Amino acid sequence: MRWNGIHxxxxxxxxxxxxxxxQAVADGRYDRKEYEASGFxxxxxxxxxxxxxxxxxxxxxxxxxxxxxxxxxxxxxHSSIAHQGLDDFASAAYVQSRTVRGRATALExxxxxxxxxxxLELAAAYLAVRPAPAAALLTTSDRFVPPGFDRFRTASGxxxxxxxxxxxxxxxxxxxxxxxxxxxxxxxxxxxxIGDEPWSEVPGANGWPVDTQAxxxxxxxxxxxxxxxxxxxxxxxxxxxxxxxxxDEAGLLARDIAWWVFPNMGALTDWYALEELGVDExxxxxxxxxxxxxxxxxxxxxxxxxxxxxxxxxxxxxVLLNGAGTGFAFGSAVVEVTAAPDWPASADEPAPxxxxxxxxxxx
Length: 363
Known about the structure:
Blueprint: E1 7-15, E2 17-20, H1 21-26, H2 32-38, E3 42-45, H3 52-66, E4 73-79, H4 91-97, E5 105-109, H5 115-128, E6 135-142, E7 163-170, E8 176-185, H6 212-223, H7 228-249, E9 257-261, H8 271-274, H9 286-289, H10 299-309, E10 318-325, E11 329-337
Parallel strand pairs: 4-5, 4-6, 9-10
Antiparallel strand pairs: 1-7, 1-8, 2-3, 6-7, 8-11, 10-11
């Protein structure tokens, strides 16, 4: 989809502290072979919950940067993977209540690691049919903590980082223009996220922590090892397809892309498959991502925020955002930077929430 008149006004991230992966190896929490193969040097760890407050913290900062009146927000979209703080809990409504408030529509997206990009296209479509001014707040948040997750072992080749992100999208000018976005779903290998694990009636009934690697291994064992190259080719092919289409629909060529923001996937990143697009690793956010870990649905928003905060991108630069979620869902978007904001680095994790009175506690 090609977009006209849709703008990124601001972004922000609210991340946990960085934990050295070398220290995690020394402590026996992280397998040395995984450490050497993955390329991660650190991972973000948030010591306190609820996870959804990371989205609130990022949202508050993004709103302050955007300077758009709260009354102009008609949509709040929140994406996540892990537990947000309570069972049977409307996390998007919680984010709205602590950020834009008002009578915006609050939605939640569960598209695994592609949730942020799915939210971006959904919000762009929403704003495209609304008269200006109109705005949307998009947030993500996750904490991959015990007993639900073991950030070092849940998925081979991947480290799970804690953090929240936010992006303000509107019909008025900001720091970038949204040029295009593409979403693709391919469920050919959907069984990989199930494996041989039985269905359960409640969360955790099959035991904690979640072991996605065991599901993958069981799935491949059922189909036979010869299917593995087909799975890799299918996934990388779909990822490249969304990128090519997003670039084409933006009216650009791959050489016009100044920076590439990929998921922080460590050893799971297929750099070889990206060579056909002319991707140079030095023009990606991996040097930052290898210190953050995979932030669930938030790698793309946090990565673009990092590029803007560090001044690595300036007016005229085109940036491609790419994502993929298990199941599988794929997405890409192209933005063109229009301003060089004077933003310091995004905030650390916020103070924890208190339920009584529905107000957050002071630091």
